[in-house]
Design brief:
The structure holds two protein chains of two kinds. Chain A is of the alpha+beta class. Chain A has twelve helices and twelve strands. In chain A, strands 4-5-8-6-7 form a five-stranded antiparallel beta sheet. Chain B is an alpha+beta fold. The longest helix of chain B has 24 residues. Chain B is globular and about 80 Å long. In chain B, the strands form seven sheets. In chain B, strands 3-5-1-11-8-9-10 form a seven-stranded mixed beta sheet, with helices on both faces. Classes of the chains: A alpha+beta, B alpha+beta. The interface between A and B is large, with 36 and 36 residues.
């Protein structure tokens, strides 16, 4: 790979500052995505600021919810008693992703930063506006079976590949970040990732040098009725064709409120306000779920090879809601 | 009673492998080693207009950048060696890197950067700038299928009987088209070579299934005598056919080492493997089957079309076994090839057979439904008692017993014919069956045994062990016939200093090399008998070699074990400490009178989520009849692996090509999906042993390929049974079942 400077940050402030000072610097956490991309010459940072010594891996109860450190490993997060008890949707989503070995290395902050798995993004001989702005989108008229059906632009049809974030969107998580000047701010996770628009090279709304320090989970009414469903080309260790994070707050057999987030269908986890509206106040039934699924996929704009995602998405939404409601 | 043959033995190389002592090609070291990194091109066809390596050459640690402008021309003489299985002796047209500005396929090597370290070479490889004059390319076999023709080698396809007329007259017909995508082998170990010259003598550590094949290739490439090339390949981390032919990297590595006068190592990345060693070809098959209402086949027309490259012919012989599976008087089964601008395809596990049998065995299932006859019953109705192609008897064929035993173990009787008629809760259950077939091949092979007075033995043959357990099985055969214990036998392979063996392909290693080891052991015994009988008092006087056997350091009469001599005594009397014999085994002329084949029956259960299109192979029973099983432990592993390969082919594997660019777009293990553990559930493998004295003295047939041959069809048939959906293009991914 290309030569780069390696430094080990002693605290979060120093880390943020080091990256802020160099436009070509990047944070290094678990390295499960960044290092792969560097070997492929897709990512070309000239400086890596290693975060592994920072004390940001705590998982603790906070303000009725739970604060999850940015550097907590995916495995530790999924297996934490507080998460398993109060946010089983998050546990399910995390263990649906990658492999045990990768989850032991991957961090929560890094997972939010995971880049697309678009084949054209990975091949430096191919056009890709995300990798090299202005070169075009190889997938738009190319192989796009695994690509977006929502929110894409002519510049980019890639999807966000992760599972964990789909659950975080459903759980109204908040991302806490720290800037170079020590300024802290919070970003509702729903506003964290971006749609590609004209700037597909930007995956999210972080400023350069801003460091994710924690993901905060508010007190959740969904612990009893949630389900993470992932449909993929093999039984494990593959990215989602379609994933659904479904969560219901029940009042008897009536749905008080719902969360429906689709993964693998857009440049970001795709929370469906339409489906959620269709469910609120309705009885938990297959019929309600079908209506919600139709609402969720109504605005889909499939590409040449991924029209199946519309039908698959509907069926996956129904199934995930049925599971969440414990009707199957 | 055999002491070792037929009994389970753990791998003799197992400890070396799990402790890291087993050295693979890339792990060999040489003093002053330099590291090469291959630069791949970015267009599918055309010429290199300009290649600018100046920046790369200036990068830290770079020793030299080889391109077509400065690389020496490599020879392409015909090999004088005998070639890999099922290949003909023809000019070595295999692709050699950096020989001209011509681009034949996308991701073709266009430069080799050699540096002091691997990272330096990889970094500098990104600094090489290449400009192309691209030309119109074709990588889509579908687009050129009409111009497919018969391969120039081999006999032209000839019909049996009158297939057209018989088809027209058939009261029941099915006709359909089946498709198999390009697939890649994806062994765990990446291909690698370490080359070192001493003057004009070359030593190369290579990942190969055929050390002698690589030797011939390199000798002709560099114009040196074959005896001056030593190819060493003691361990291979899976190959599945991807190392049967010499790939471009050994010559490239040796070329760089020769030019730089220092050892060079080149290791493919996973991505480089996708255009570095060939692939299973994209195959379109059209099958028409005609039958009487009774189910008796009256006509079979099976045409396969697959890609080859523009510079070389590859023939997968897709329809080869169609001629020999079922009794049918009228048949036409040509395999046609058509060039595209992809690399040359190559053999990939169960080459031709698994592709052809996918189509044929799905078509048989379709015919069973058209006839309303149980699919297994239909196969029994058309059972070939003799080889339908040659009319010769089979040397052995226990397929009927495979069907019977498999059906019984699986519980096939409980199957309801109607699709979508069986359920497990919400899941649709499907049961499918298919026949597997492979040849019982054998080639010339040699082995050398040095048997020492202390009872230990050193056995060598230049075969390979790509995973089936060759080290172990040869050790067992040697110990069996030398009368000592496996711990006293050291078997070595993968070195051109050892006696010649054929490429490890086509499932013929145990039959070929095993026969050589067996023969060499008998030669040792014969030699000892001669030596013993130089003593006037020998109790073995008058005995022929066939009458004696070795056991526990004694040579004894088989018919009267009380008559024996001490082997150490015999050696001492002759002032010997060891006896060495080399034996070359050849297929017996007797084989010509028979059809020699291995068979199997597969029974598969799938469960399909009707909403989400996800297929799980919940149960697979594979019953195979492939002669004598020498090591049941490794053999079951082989067949289980075959089932896993079948699952991959049926459900997950496909190399995706963007035909606009003529480029493979999923050359990595995140996008190319081999099955993972979670895709594999209950797999049971059963052997019906055959006592076959014709095939070879050990009675063994091929089995490594056989294990996967029927599985994709059985799975596709099970999916049809579960869902009513006939998917004829692999892989059967969820989107195809919505």
């Amino acid at each position: 790979m290309r030569p780069f400077k390696y430094t080990r940050a002693s605290d979060a402030g120093a880390a943020a500052q080091a990256v802020a000072l160099n436009p070509r610097a990047k944070f290094l956490a678990g390295g499960t995505n960044l290092l792969d991309l560097m070997k492929e010459d897709v990512e070309r940072p000239d400086e890596l600021v290693d975060l592994s010594r920072l004390k940001l891996s705590e998982i603790r109860a906070a303000g009725g919810g739970v604060s999850v450190g940015a550097l907590a490993k995916n495995s530790d997060t999924a297996n934490h008693p507080l998460i398993r008890r109060d946010y089983p949707l998050l546990t399910q989503a995390i263990v649906a992703g990658a492999s045990g070995q990768l989850r032991n290395m991957a961090t929560n902050g890094g997972n939010l930063m995971q880049r697309t798995r678009c084949q054209y993004f990975y091949d430096t001989a191919m056009p890709c506006n995300k990798r090299e702005p202005g070169t075009g989108c190889g997938a738009r008229e190319g192989l796009n079976r695994i690509h977006a059906i929502f929110g894409w632009s002519d510049k980019c049809v890639a999807t966000y590949p992760g599972d964990m974030a789909n659950a975080l969107y459903a759980l109204d998580a908040v991302v806490r970040v720290r800037g170079a000047q020590g300024r802290e701010r919070t970003i509702p996770v729903n506003d964290f990732h971006r749609l590609p628009g004209d700037t597909p090279e930007k995956d999210n709304n972080l400023q350069h040098g801003e460091l994710i320090t924690a993901v905060e989970l508010p007190k959740s009414p969904f612990a009893k009725n949630s389900y993470y469903l992932k449909v993929r080309d093999r039984a494990s260790y593959a990215f989602a064709l379609v994933a659904v994070a479904a969560a219901l707050e029940m009042n008897g057999s009536t749905i008080r409120q719902a969360r429906v987030v689709l993964g693998g269908v857009a440049h970001k986890p795709w929370r469906s306000a339409e489906a959620e509206a269709a469910l609120a106040g309705r009885p938990a039934s297959e019929e309600s779920f079908r209506r919600a699924a139709d609402a969720a996929l109504a605005g889909a704009k499939p590409l040449a090879h991924n029209a199946y995602k519309v039908e698959l998405g509907k069926r996956a939404v129904v199934r995930a809601l049925m599971r969440a409601a414990r009707l199957v | 009673m055999p002491r070792y043959i037929g009994k389970e033995m753990s791998r003799v190389d197992g400890v070396a492998k799990v402790t890291g002592r087993a050295k693979y090609a890339a792990e060999f070291r040489a003093p002053n080693l330099a590291y090469g990194f291959v630069v791949l091109g970015a267009v599918a066809k055309g010429r290199i207009r300009d290649i600018d390596a100046r920046e790369a050459e200036r990068a830290p640690g770079v020793v030299r950048v080889f391109t077509h402008l400065n690389a020496p021309k490599l020879g392409q003489k015909a090999s004088t060696e005998y070639a890999p299985p099922r290949n003909t002796r023809e000019q070595d047209k295999s692709f050699r890197a950096l020989q001209s500005d011509r681009i034949y396929f996308n991701a073709q090597p266009v430069a080799l950067v050699v540096a002091e370290t691997y990272e330096q070479a990889r970094y500098a490889s990104r600094l090489v700038k290449v400009a192309y004059d691209a030309e119109r390319h074709t990588t889509d076999t579908e687009a050129v299928r009409e111009s497919a023709r018969a391969p120039s080698q081999g006999p032209p396809p000839k019909p049996r009987g009158n297939p057209e007329a018989a088809m027209k007259a058939a009261p029941v017909k099915v006709e359909a088209e089946y498709r198999i995508p390009v697939e890649h082998h994806n062994p765990m170990e990446p291909h690698a070579a370490v080359a070192a010259w001493a003057g004009d003598k070359l030593t190369i550590f290579d990942k190969t299934q055929d050390v002698y094949g690589v030797r011939a290739h390199l000798a002709s490439t560099f114009g040196v005598p074959e005896a001056d090339v030593n190819v060493v390949s003691p361990y291979v981390g899976g190959a599945f056919g991807s190392s049967l032919r010499p790939n471009y990297y050994p010559a490239l590595t040796a070329m760089a080492a020769r030019e730089l006068r220092r050892p060079v190592k080149v290791v493919y990345t996973r991505t480089q493997m996708f255009t570095g060693h060939g692939h299973r070809p994209y195959t379109i098959q059209k099958i028409a089957l005609g039958a009487e209402a009774s189910g008796k086949l009256t006509a079979m027309i099976h045409t396969a079309v697959h890609n080859t490259s523009t510079f070389e012919e590859f023939n997968d012989n897709t329809t080869g076994f169609t001629r020999q599976v079922y009794a049918c008087p009228n048949l036409f089964a040509p395999t046609l090839i058509v060039p595209t601008d992809l690399p040359t395809p190559t053999w990939m596990r169960a080459p031709g057979a698994v592709s052809g049998m996918f189509a044929l065995e799905c078509a048989m299932d379709e015919l069973a439904y058209a006839l309303k006859i149980d699919p297994l019953e239909l196969r029994l109705i058309n059972y070939a008692e003799t080889d339908p192609e040659s009319g010769r008897p089979f040397s052995s064929k226990a397929l009927r017993e495979c069907y019977r035993l498999g059906a019984e173990k699986f519980g096939w009787k409980a199957r309801r014919m109607e699709p979508r008629s069986m359920r497990d809760g919400r899941l649709l259950v499907g049961w499918g069956t298919a026949t597997g077939v492979w040849g019982a091949f054998q080639s010339r092979a040699s082995a050398r045994i040095t048997y020492r007075a202390d009872g230990t033995a050193h056995v060598t043959s230049a075969t390979s062990d790509i995973g089936p357990g060759t080290y172990t099985v040869m050790t067992m055969i040697a110990a069996e016939y030398l009368g000592n214990r496996p711990e006293q036998v050291r078997f070595e392979l993968g070195d051109t200093n050892f006696p010649r063996a054929p490429a490890q392909g086509g499932s013929q290693t145990t039959s070929s090399v095993g026969s050589a080891v067996h023969g060499a052991a008998l030669a040792v015994a014969a030699k000892l008998l001669t030596l013993a009988n130089q003593d006037a008092a020998s109790p073995l006087k008058g005995a022929a070699a066939a009458d004696v056997e070795m056991l526990d350091g004694r040579l004894r009469l088989k018919g009267d074990p009380s008559k024996s001599v001490s082997i150490p005594d015999v050696m001492r009397r002759n002032s010997l400490t060891e006896v060495t014999e080399t034996f070359e085994s050849r297929p017996s002329p007797e084989r010509q009178k028979y059809a020699t084949m291995a068979h199997g029956a597969q029974f598969v259960e799938v469960k399909v989520d009707p909403d989400l299109g996800q297929v799980r192979v919940t149960r697979a029973i594979e019953v195979t009849a492939c002669g004598k099983i020498i090591n049941p432990k490794a053999s079951h592993s082989q067949e289980i692996g075959g089932v896993v390969w079948g699952i991959g082919m049926a459900l997950t594997e496909a190399t995706e090509i963007d035909h606009r660019y003529g480029r493979i777009m999923n050359p990595n293990l995140q996008h190319y999906h081999v099955p993972v553990n979670a895709d594999v559930h209950e797999v049971e493998t059963v052997f019906v042993e055959e006592d076959d004295k014709v095939v070879n003295p050990l009675g063994v047939k091929g089995m490594g390929e056989l294990g996967m041959v029927g599985i994709p069809a059985a799975i596709a048939n099970a999916v049809f049974h579960a869902t009513g959906r006939r998917v004829r293009d692999l892989p059967i991914t969820p989107d195809k079942l919505l």
